[in-house]
Amino acid sequence: MNPSLFVAQRITAFVLAFAVTIHLATILYAAQRGLTAGHILQRTHGNVAFFALYVIFVIAASIHAPIGLRAILREWLGWWGRRVDVSLVAFAAVLLTLGLRAAFAVFVA
Amino acid sequence: MTGADLHIRIWRGQEEGEFQSFRLSARKSQTVLDAVTEIQREREPTLAYRYACRVGMCGSCAMTVNGEPRWTCRTRISTVAKDGTLTLEPLRNLPVVKDLVVDMTTFFEKWRSAKGAFEPGSAPREDFAVVRPDSASRRAADEGIECIGCGVCYSACDVVAWDRDYLGPAALNRAWTLVNDVRDQGQAERLAAVAANGGCNSCHTHMSCTTFCPKKLAPTYAIAGLKRATARAAIRVTK
Hints:
The structure holds two protein chains of two kinds.
Chain A: H1 3-33, H2 37-44, H3 48-77, H4 82-108
Chain B: E1 5-13, E2 17-25, H1 32-42, E3 62-65, E4 68-71, H2 77-80, E5 85-89, E6 96-98, E7 101-102, H3 105-113, H4 136-144, H5 152-156, H6 158-162, H7 169-179, H8 187-195, H9 208-212, H10 219-238
Parallel strand pairs in B: 1-5
Antiparallel strand pairs in B: 1-2, 3-4, 3-5, 6-7
Helix pairs in contact in B: 3-7, 4-7, 7-8, 7-10, 8-10
């Protein structure tokens, strides 16, 4: 693996460790309190901190996942090369687009 | 277990083959290599195996003993036999030449690919390099420099098993000792070589190499050092 990708994966892993923890804690809080979708959206609407957290989460995941997938494809299926890399960039773009769209939707809902 | 019966199963053939069984009398302090030598000299002269020094220096007698890679000249049978049975196979991850002998060509080619040779540079230094024994780089080099090239770590490594381009623990360990050699003039090429596909970042830190190294070296930590060094180099380049 290219060292730049290695560094990017490690840094995003560090970010995800915090983001996933907060994400899971939020889910547990919502489930324990019995919050409905409406209650949740009430709390997230216009909440800049929540929006910023999920934007960072989505960006980190969009970088982290394709790099890991690239290693898995190479090691387990022997797939590598320019075509695979281009496909993974496209995969990253899809993750980023869907993720940011969801974060924005929750922010403005 | 002196005098007791030993049941030894030895792989015969190449990639295709079968186990041949032998029964031997166990002797005090008998090593696995002693048993193989006794079988080859007294029972089965066509048995192929490799050894040279018999004292843990040359690294040529490594085999798979009861499923684990080991240097057989320093492995006493009493410590590894399970119910008096030993199963001996060639090292994993290398093509079998015959019986217990593997072709080490790929193993040593990967040392070359990892730039595992000292690079003095085009012009000799004007004076002796001063290398303090207690300096961090010298201590890091010391930790990996006793490798005897036996191939045990290469055989134990799962990443080598599934990625034929992976340079392997021994070659990367060698590269790390040279990265810590202040006299070496080929660091940029070496870091590029070990950072490429199949290089240090392919290591999954399973630590099998460190677990099985008969010299008690820690190639895993050497590889971790290379990961840090190549990451630093990548950050320097992009700045």
